[in-house]
Automatic annotation (TrEMBL):
Belongs to the short-chain dehydrogenases/reductases (SDR) family. The keyword Protein biosynthesis does not apply. GO terms for molecular function: cis-2,3-dihydrobiphenyl-2,3-diol dehydrogenase activity. The gene is bphB2. This is Cis-3-phenylcyclohexa-3,5-diene-1,2-diol dehydrogenase. It comes from Rhodococcus jostii (strain RHA1). It is an enzyme of class 1 (oxidoreductase).
Amino acid sequence: MGWLEGNVAVITGGGSGLGRALVERFIEEGAKVGVLERSAEKVKKLAADFGENVVTVEGDVSKYEDNASVVRETVRQFGRLDTFVGNAAIWDFSTKLVDIPEDRLDPLFDEMFHINVKGYLNGAKAAVKELALTGGSIVFTVSNAGFYPGGGGPLYTASKHAVVGLVKELAFEFAPKIRVNGVAPGAMATDLRGPGSIGLGETNVSSLPLADLIKQCTVLQELCEPADYTGHYVLLASKDNSRTATGAIINCDGGMGVRGLAETAGGNDL
Ligand SMILES: NC(=O)c1ccc[n+]([C@@H]2O[C@H](COP(=O)([O-])OP(=O)(O)OC[C@H]3O[C@@H](n4cnc5c(N)ncnc54)[C@H](O)[C@@H]3O)[C@@H](O)[C@H]2O)c1
């Protein structure tokens, strides 16, 4: 018996990377899943791969109506909503403030914050009434960039710090009926795209030497797969196993916060 038997979840950005791994894991744990995803191609593949266990909506998290639509379709198909996972985001490819052309700052800010921050607000607002009916919960994907500099440029880092604020504020606002938590993963080789407003809409994070970077900046030193992070979401979504957790964020970035000042961590003959 899975940890999410009989549960129904909505996951945004479920078409690839972490979101798709979450769709797969939630179904394995016994849940039915609604997905909001902007790529038509990925939506088609989800429907083909997961059949009657998923309901898909092609749309944009930055539009409230698309969030309302995935909640509506999910409840129509599966009868309830227990978990909303806000996950869709874009990355800024660590673009420094000094390198952003003056006329691009405005559209870049809007694109990044409309997807990474307003997208989660839209989802929470669209889901809140259904979640209250089931005593459900929200889980937001944060990032190491929600805690430390250098995992993005100022716009991505600020957007993920804003998500930390949303977890805390909504945990306060939605208590006691709805729990709100976060998961802060580290790097993964996914299709994570850049902002179209600075010409990076077709570039993805997998084009970088992530394994080398992770070796340098985490104590566990291993570049993990999206599936390696899914257990944290299952735990937080599980009513039986996380009844006491709200406003919590699981840092699972391979130990960036315990790297210390030594040139290399560990090194003992263990
Ligand atoms: N990949 C990493 O190194 C990394 C590290 C830390 C945190 N994260 C976070 O993990 C989450 C998932 O990212 P991923 O790495 O799996 O990337 P991904 O691009 O593979 O998955 C994100 C999905 O969201 C979709 N999407 C993007 N913008 C959308 C929009 N406006 N509306 C609807 N769907 C949209 C994409 O099409 C994609 O399918 C993000 O919140 C990201 O910030 C990623």
